[in-house]
Fold this sequence. Notes:
globular, 10 strands, Jelly Rolls, lipoprotein, Gliding motility lipoprotein GldH, Motility-assoc_lipoprot_GldH, 4-stranded antiparallel beta sheet
Amino acid sequence: xxxxxxxxxxxxxxxxxxxxxxxxxxxxxxxxxxxxxxxxxxxxxxxxxxxxxxxxxxxxxxxxxxxxxxxxxxxxxxxxxxxxxxxxxxxxxxxxxxxxxxxxxxxxxxxxxxxxxxxxxxxxxxxxxxxxxxxxxxxxxxxxxxxxxxxxxxxxxx
Length: 158
């Protein structure tokens, strides 16, 4: 019986290991995502010669009232270069079914940000994410975005 338990524990350990992961951090929201709240992720330069894929990880629940989300993502390089992207991601099918993964009301979305990139500069990088959601026809944005539980940033080795 002890030997079976040991093998099961080893199998779970190997299954849960993620060999591609270089960086993976999350920021949680207690009561929705405030429009003024920019979430920053700081990381050191990974191996310069390797190539990487970058992702935004987003967890939402059924109180998220939209089928898409607009994000403004800013990558800051150690020597001062800044790349800013405004991106739209689909969150639900036309029939309202969530696209994310999960068995409960909470869905995990792994959203492509950039692919096959290198980090040529030595030092600390940062990625800042904020939402840019607004209702159709409204000039002002949504102050508090409900249904977003966590936002994360992930770097995977290609």
